[in-house]
Amino acid sequence: MIQPVSPESAQYCGLLAKYSSVLFGNLVWLPNFNGKPYFNFVATVDAVKSGNVLSGYLIDYVKSGKVIVIQGIIGERFSSVVNQAFLAKINNTGLTVAVNSHGFYDQNITIPVITQALSANPNAKAIVTFSGEMGNGVAIYLKQNGIKNIVYISVDCNVELAEYIRDMLSIYIKYIC
């Protein structure tokens, strides 16, 4: 299963999988592009709903303050749609986005991003990530630094992030599947 950055990358990966006799699925890309014949299945995620759920939770429970957003890749379809929906819903609320950066779906890239974001905004009330891998980076940083006064939400969750959640019960972490 891949979450492609571009139609070209999806098509290329699909072609490699087909000729390697590997089952291959595409997550969240538009189902009507040229690479579709190479996929065994295509799954779609409602990115607008994801953005609305994230923002709705923060509006209801955090209410006001600075938010740090870490997208997968700024401009990539999934991140862009989630981000647009998120920003539209928090518009004219007490929430403001202090940092809107990308973590390239990688925990190791996300750690310095969240380090810099929280250094510049130590009074941030919430952190939002658009993937479990980036969520791992945020959870690692929060745990290593004993930060327990911030709401952290991730669009999804993986096994590693679930372990951090169990380890950090005093830090409220919510994930959306």
Automatic annotation (TrEMBL):
InterPro entries: Peripla_BP_I (IPR028082), SBP_2_dom (IPR025997). Residues 42-167 form the Periplasmic binding protein domain. It comes from the Eukaryota. This is Periplasmic binding protein domain-containing protein.
